[in-house]
Description:
Chain A is of the alpha/beta class. Chain A is 21% helix and 29% strand. Chain A contains 9 helices and 26 strands. Chain B has 2 domains: 1-59 and 130-146, Alpha-Beta Plaits (2-Layer Sandwich), CATH 3.30.70; 64-119, Alpha-Beta Plaits (2-Layer Sandwich), CATH 3.30.70. In chain B, the strands form 4 sheets. A two-stranded antiparallel ribbon of chain B has the order 1-8. In chain B, strands 2-3 form a two-stranded antiparallel ribbon.
Amino acid sequence: MQKFNYLIIGNSAGAVGCIEGLRTVDKNGTIAVVSEETHHVYSRALIPYYLDGKVNKENMHYRPQDFYQRAGVTLFSGQRASQVHFDTKEVVTAGGERLGYEKLLLATGGKPIVPPIPGLDKSNVFTFLSMDDVLKIEKSLAGAKDAVVLGGGVIGLMAAEVLKKKGLNVHVLELAPRVLAPVIDETASDIVESSFKEAGVGIATNNTIQEIHGQETVDKIVLKDGTVLSCDLLVVGVGVSPRVDLVESTAIKIQRGIVVDQKMQTSVPDVYACGDCASIYDFITGENRPLPLWPNAYSGGRVAAFNMAGKSRYYTWGTGMNSMHFFDTNIINAGMNVSEENDQNLEIITKVEKDKKIYRKFVINEKGHIKGFALIGEIARAGILLNLIRRKVDVRPFKQKLLEEDFGYAHMHDELRWQLLKDDVVLGVI
Amino acid sequence: MAKILVKPEVCIGCHLCEVWCAVAHSKSKNLIKAFIYEDPKPLPRVAVEEDLPLTFPLQCRHCDEPDCVSACISGALHKDPESGRVIHDKERCVGCYSCVLVCPYGNVFIDHENRKIVKCDLCAGLDMPYCVSNCPNEALIYVSDS
Lengths: 430, 146
């Protein structure tokens, strides 16, 4: 049996974050990666860009071709981990290979949610998560005229935009009363919906698939409200759920995702988890939940690496956050998404110019801390706002300035500004 | 790590750091040609923070643990282990603006025309960044590694 100091299951953002973290503190420890897919490490987040023709196959790679070699990583490519034995500290692959570990990282990712609707197993139905998905969609585009996208969340809308740009008639079906419902509020959803409608994409809310017609392929879809849509291509973009099947029957604590503490450690000694498979600490709510987003996966993997190598580090900056764009409307949001009528004593301040597709919204608690924000159109320097959340700054003295596009450090009061920038400025020179 | 510090009390708010930054990243490297003839116009990678009478520029800090690199979905941003600079490869950039979301200094700039970002590279290859050497009131200090 081969044995490694560090064994990583999964081969995406979390794995890369872990490898890069490990190599900053441990140049010699042995590292192995078990990757189910045979593709060189690529960015799932680039899938819409690939389909759109903005990124070629080469640039889908998240790290250079020689990444594993240079980092001294043994890669088990095309091998699925099928069992893990925490007592003997080994992982068994589907091919029967046994791999021992001292420290283990579970970075198994997410699996696309496919609702239990009869007919979703037909040959022109695709999910939108992996390289193989997008290669199949690419092939089926030839001759396709009508596309239906199930799901009006981030994944579904990104798929819908690209398919529209590819010249297809596109309809998006969303069960909720509006698109992007858990991510942004009503006003923001309205603006996004209008971007899609102006581009000629059909958005059907409060609606879903009632019935699928066709033999081998989906030909027609009957919606809940009775509408009939022709369909050459059906993309299921409802979301992802943590992929935990590998450890489901073990003693490890799972609550939707594999539960980790702020060190990214699971309930089992020497076993860590990060990325879409994990339930991680959300610093805004103070609770654990799956936060299946790229930066959380990479940073989680990096923090896990330090702890795996014996150096304490905490991931206390993870939360729900997105940078999105649909038909040139840029959107950035982070933290809590609540509407004006909330029961948590949260103040909401907004600026809305719907015709210009401009929106700024801040959620502020009773201590003056920003708990969430959403920006549409004016997204420049959003990171300063995220920093104010992370530093738990009382923003009340300059609250109204937050609504201005050019808001920055200059608009804060002196004491706060120079405290936040203390390593960056030289004061008292005159 | 080399970085640029600012003396806010000395900054006169002339914005010449922005102008010369754009020149440094232009094709011609010539002030007049860059702004009159070049298309697209060169963009600055520094912004003067302003709430008069207060003014001061802020450049990329080339952080030890750069949030922008962690957030980058395409691998376009990386921290060079030798120089310590946070480097942006515009060929790989897809303009997702995840780095804009996380940079605590607001120091990743949007190039709307090309749907990409631009950022400070400390004028790679030069002994002294343009913004520092061209600041008329010497409000900027370049602190090198040593």
